[in-house]
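Q: Give me the 3D complex with magnesium ion.
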Amino acid sequence: MWKNALLQGLIALLPVFLFLVWYNRPKRTRFVPLFLAAACGIALFLNARLSVAALSGIHLDFRYLPLLIGSLYGGLPVAVFLVCVYLVYRLLHIQASIEYLYFGAVVLLLHVPLIRISTKFRLGPRAKRFKIAFVCLFVMSLDYCAFIMIKNRGELLPPFRDDPGLLANWAVFLLVAVLAVHFMELGFERVNLQNALQEMSRKYRGEVRRLQQFIDQAPLVVVILDASGRIVHVNEFALRLIHPVSGKDVIDQHYRVLRQLMDIDSPSPIERVMQGDERAVEMVRFRAHTIYTIACVIKGSPGQSSDGILLIGQDVTELQQLKDELGRMERLSLVGQMAASITHEIRNPMAVIRGFVQLLNERSSAEQQSYFRIVMEELDRANGIINDFLSLAQNRIVEKQPGSLHDVLNEMMPLIYADANMRGQVVELRLTDDIGPLEINSKEIKQLVLNLARNGMEAMPGGGVLRIETVDLPETVQLRVTDSGVGIPQEKLERLFEPFYTTKTNGTGLGLALCLSIVERHNGIIRVESKVGEGTTFIVNFSKPGSRNV
Ligand code: ADP
Ligand code: MG
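A: Here is the predicted complex, encoded as structure tokens.
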């Protein structure tokens, strides 16, 4: 009896051992149901074949075990399959009709619940799985006892006492069942651990990759040293900065080598950290760059002193340049303000001088009058220059009113015609149909047109045509001043609107700068199209009321 029980126990455990050997890689998970169906099916069949009748007529039988293991760990299809195998085999060997009743009860109490449990068994937590397995074993034991009672007319204890085979069968069955559940859990746990490890290392690698990319792509110098001061990592930005020194030249070298290679003599914050500071900040000058560098200790795991040194540097060259530029601009602006107030004050004595010169002019002889006229003309010219300069320097807010651009142009045309006449040039005025009112300051617009027209005329020393026209566009009104003069070469185009930029011997270079500030005050845009030898067009776009684009 013992031998048979042990043999059956071994056969019942065989699927478990085979499973442990076979299931050692996560990718086999898909085939677990197939494997368990085959192995447990065969074991179930063999156990059934090996079952022998004990003294009391009860069969010593382990077939429940492969059924239990396969159903629980293989899932629903395997459970259905094994239960079917079990039932078919059992029904074929039924002898008495009372056994049908008994098997009906077994199906209802054991097999149906087993099939239901099998759908979710693997998803539950481990402790719950153990509980379920033991409840199943308990039910199976009840079933065993019930069968003994059926065979022995309601008696349970006497058969156990009389027949040691029954007890052996039961004891070995329980032991083997516990072992089987335990080993199955081990097998799954091993693969789960592998899975978790793989997942973790995949995540870790992803994290490292992301971090690496971040370090390399950040517009910062990042250098990592180990605790002894050897360079472990230099990011791409730093490599670009120290080019032609390459990564191979510096990795694994002491950081002093980097300093020598790069020829830096500013104090290195790394040295201060090496000497014991937690953190050091320094402005390092390297080639034409100014780099704001921070060195700090990389904190090791608790208990350890340090894992190395991290050096982070930001290229602040542009910031530094901007700062310097700002300082210069402030000084210039101060000078500009001073100049503006001085020129303003000069106008008063000039007005007095002009008044007296006019008085003298009226009282002097005709011959002297021509001299006084020259003095007055020059005073007027000086006054004009001062006015231009002041309107440029004072960034005042002008009052704008809805007005007609065409009216302003028509008003000034006599002046421009007269000027052109004197120079032997022709002026064409082409106004589009009525364009409606624009927000303008007519005094400033006059100054703008006059400056552009005068420049055009001055660019046509040998005579030519000056055309002033307006164009009505959907969002804007365009004012175009075109001359057929000398044109402007490309390199001069860029500097045209700079104050004091002039190519004329008696020019001031303020005309176009003033035009630009007037156009900006009107929220417009001014641009130039020019061809050397053919002529130049200044185009001013005024935005129409209600539209935002220019
Ligand atoms: P200014 O007329 O006193 O020289 P502007 O600011 O009016 O100062 O003009 C600056 C420079 O731009 C001029 O000296 C000239 O070289 C160039 N320029 C302006 N308008 C024209 C034009 N229509 N054709 C050719 N050159 C021009
Ligand atoms: Mg000019």
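A quick observation: The first strand starts at residue 52 and ends at 53.
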